[in-house]
Amino acid sequence: MAFVQGAGLDVGQKRSVGHVCQTRGYGNAGVNVRVARVSARRCAVVSMQQRAEQDAAQAKKIKVAVLGATGSVGQRFIELLGGHPWFDVVALGASSRSAGKPYEEACRWKQAVPIPEETRRVVVSDCDASLEAFKDVKIVFSGLDNEVAGDIEEAFAKTGKAVFSNAKNHRMDPDVPILIPPVNAAHVEVLPAQIKARNFNGGFLVTNANCSTTVMSIGLKPIMEKFGIEKIHVTTMQAISGAGYPGLPSMDIIDNVVPYIGSEEEKMESESKKIYGTIGKDGTFENADFVVSAMCNRVHVLDGHLEAISLKLKTPATPEQVIEAIKAYPSVTKQLGLPSAPEKDVVYCDAPDRPQTRLDRMLGGGFTVSVGRVRKCTINDIRLVCLGHNTIVGAAGGSIINAELCVAKGLISRE
Ligand SMILES: NC(=O)C1=CN([C@@H]2O[C@H](COP(=O)(O)OP(=O)(O)OC[C@H]3O[C@@H](n4cnc5c(N)ncnc54)[C@H](OP(=O)(O)O)[C@@H]3O)[C@@H](O)[C@H]2O)C=CC1
Ligand SMILES: N[C@@H](CC(=O)OP(=O)(O)O)C(=O)O
């Protein structure tokens, strides 16, 4: 795999290597030449050693593939997996329009950082699980269009791969978790039964939630845990990137708000109950008992879903108690030791006009959900605002954290 300059070194190591490699330019010229030669030899030895160590570290990484790699979510996967400490992207899949081309030619890269060097020239394959390109891969991240995701993801799982999907197709399967580690990390426990029942050669399927549902579920978790929730009224203001690339025509979304996103309201209302549900005696999910009413809107921001929420609690609480519960909530992903974990999974913003989409969506690298404006509600008990990044915590980043959890729990071997 590609040699990445400086990778695997801490700051102190980089400094000492720099020091050894320096040729000194002052004083006696002859001495300087000898010092320079000795330094150059030491420098070469050190860099060979480094290179060997880096190659060994790279070889130990788990080989992964990204399907739908050219799309909005797929590009986020490629960005977030660049330099990942556990995972090495070795294969990419997309439609036949992209297959056969090097990644940099196949995709119209829209991220704010360059394509990771090691991925630029990887040739995109068709999403055919039997292809040689996918042979050594243990983990498959899918950002596939839901028109095709269902069958393709299942075909990859059948060849023994751990598949982490962003599509809606398998979310409501009774033995497939909608996994959000800050909310329901225990739901990985259904996987051994799924592996056995589906006879997938050790492979399995894990899904993400719909992105608006993820933001709401993480944002409300501290409140659900402490007081219980009976009713949720949620109104979303969702980013354009949620509709994929190229998304809505500019003439439809500039200077506009579109009060309709197909099936989004239904997904928020059903998926959240499974996410907060429990695993029953038969190993499948039992829904949580609250009700949700969702109203979903597309607004003209690029990334980030903002949600205005009103809640009826099971145990009455003041706004101050709710704020205290959010602030006290631990960072579950950090406690689990997952490499992509942010400092906090959910934070409370004290400023009266926060969170705001443009200012707060990248908190925790896009993995943190922000909550603010907790106050009394005149109809229910409490109202508040939640914000999260739809293609990071709500999609690609969420899948990567899910895969990290499965590795940490021993469901994917590192050998
Ligand atoms: N955007 C978001 O915020 C979120 C999206 N999701 C879900 O994630 C998935 C991806 O969404 P998004 O990235 O926005 O979508 P895009 O439309 O941007 O990307 C779709 C990807 O699927 C590939 N694809 C399309 N048709 C085929 C085919 N017949 N065979 C193989 N590959 C194909 C495309 O490849 P090619 O370029 O070659 O056409 C592209 O890589 C969807 O299921 C979506 O519902 C979930 C949560 C949030
Ligand atoms: N519908 C979401 C993104 C999405 O694709 O959701 P799902 O994966 O549930 O279809 C949005 O527009 O912001």
Automatic annotation (TrEMBL):
It catalyses: L-aspartate 4-semialdehyde + phosphate + NADP(+) = 4-phospho-L-aspartate + NADPH + H(+). Pathway: Amino-acid biosynthesis; L-threonine biosynthesis; L-threonine from L-aspartate: step 2/5; Amino-acid biosynthesis; L-methionine biosynthesis via de novo pathway; L-homoserine from L-aspartate: step 2/3. One of its GO terms (biological process) is threonine biosynthetic process. Gene3D superfamilies: Dihydrodipicolinate Reductase, domain 2, NAD(P)-binding Rossmann-like Domain. The keyword Oxidoreductase applies. Keywords: Amino-acid biosynthesis, Methionine biosynthesis, NADP, Oxidoreductase, Threonine biosynthesis. The keyword Methyltransferase does not apply. It comes from the Eukaryota. The active site is at 211 (acyl-thioester intermediate), 305 (proton acceptor). It holds the Pfam family Semialdhyde_dhC. Catalyzes the NADPH-dependent formation of L-aspartate 4-semialdehyde (L-ASA) by the reductive dephosphorylation of 4-phospho-L-aspartate. Mediates the second step in the biosynthesis of amino acids that derive from aspartate (the aspartate family of amino acids), including methioinine and threonine, the latter of which is a precursor to isoleucine. Belongs to the aspartate-semialdehyde dehydrogenase family. This is Aspartate-semialdehyde dehydrogenase.
